[in-house]
Every structure is written in structure tokens, then in C-alpha cells.
Amino acid sequence: MMPYERFQAWRSCHELAIATYRLTRDFPKHELYGITSQMRRAAFSVAANIAEGSAKRGCTEFRRYLDIALGSLSELRYSALLARDLELLDEPRWKAFETKADTAGKLTMGLYKAMAKGATPTPRR
Fold first, then answer.
1. What angle do CA 103, 109, 121 make, to 5 degrees?
2. CA nearest 54: which of 65, 41, 46, 45?
3. DSSP code of 35?
């Protein structure tokens, strides 16, 4: 198991990335290089920044990567809202996605706050 896999925040963000890829499969082909690509990049960035940051030395450096992950999560949430408003997503699918994004956001923010208190970035068993 990689060190980042122990973080509940990373697991939730990884699930969100998978959900994003599945959700955008049904988007029109003319959006492949538009909103589909943007949502996928943002979703990947959220989980990838947590993984990368967990390999850095010290809480300050890890927090910087968590901050970037939170920014990407915000971008992803806006993209989903836009997709809903453009009628690429129906309301039930958007709400389910928002629930996943909300959970990922809360867990990532919790990890960010824990790092601010100087907690060790790699949990002990």
C-alpha cells in the first residue's frame, strides 16, 4: 500500500475521479475536448495532488499540495454545475455527484487542517 492510500481523503477523491470518468462517458462527443476533458483533468488533479503531497517532507509542503487539491475540487464542482446547466447532466446524477464531491471536500479540508496543527503526514498503523 502506498502511503497516500491510507488517507481517507485520498480514497474519497480517488472514488470521485472514477465517478467523474464514468459520468463524462455519456457526454456528447463534441464536448470531448471541452467540459469532458476539463472535468477529468480536475478530478485527476485532486487525487494526484494528495498522493504527490504525501511524499513531500513536512506538513507545510503537504499542505501546499492539499491546497492545490482543494482548488481543483472547486473547479471540478463548478464544471459539474455547468454540465447540469447545459443539460449534459440530469438533476439526480448531478446531486449524486455533488454528494461525492462534498464528502471528498470535507475529508480533504479535514486533512489540510490536521496538517496545519503539525500532525504527521503519514499515519502510523
1. 115
2. 65
3. I
